Amino acid sequence: MASLYGIVDPTGCTTKYCNTDGCNRFTRAENCQARAENELLLTPSCTLIDIIDKFDVCWRSLLAGFPYSDVTLCKRNIDNGLQCLAQAISNCASGDCIADLDILPLGLMYIMPMIPQYAMTFGNTASIFSLLEVPASSQNDVIGTLCLHRSSPYTAQISLLFQSLELNLTFENPFCDSQVLPDILEWHLQALPRLINANSHAVWCSVADDSKALMLNYWENRCNRSAAVLLPKFMVPVGYEFLSGKMENVVTTMENFVRNYQMPGCGVAGSSDNTVYNDSGNSSDGIHAKHLEWLQRMLVGILTALTL
To answer: Collapsing DSSP states into helix, strand and coil, what is residue 257?
Structure first.
């Protein structure tokens, strides 16, 4: 493994081994930040809470701007968000600290140093389009659709596609009824026209509030919270029980995030683009069939993957 980083002189190597209990309980570097006892250090430099906060910060400007009357501004915010996210992932994956999951026999310790290099290659839409082989003639329309701009010829088609999907899916799990995830997914697909037709950011705030209320209602009435909190604890392998408290805290952390989350730009005067749209966009007649077919396959694939 060391040879990947240059010529290795075996005469200068020393080896140590451990054959007693607790061999995988590595000592953290002295400069590592002290963490709460049950706070999960997911990567060398970030806890689970850190990562959630970074994702939230990176996309706040984009979300606060909906609905967009200017697709160029939306694209700029998407690129800024991607660049911010790539930098955040790179920073989190860097550092000398031993992440809690590194001590599990998963090989994450060896993967982590490669993440910064790959993360920075996805720092803008151009790189992602290149990776996904999105046709150049479709890229502007895809951006318009990501911005849910009604002038994009794909936007109305996607709305109709989502609403017409037959979601005869179940999600078997030990803590919620099998229809919870499909019901949540279907509700959000049906809410999509509200976002597309919105003429102010207040509509987005309303949909976000309704979404949060729905998920919390399902969580409290259609899921067994006690079982969900304990599940990560039981996933810890034998010999690594000292991680149980941290894993048990994962569900609580996610629950608190959803309860406290507020859509960016909501309740703050002047923080959103409230321009009313003019319905002067292109009609769907000009859509290239092969491009729409490509987009449909991608969307159906994503939805299928989410419900497996």
So the answer is: helix
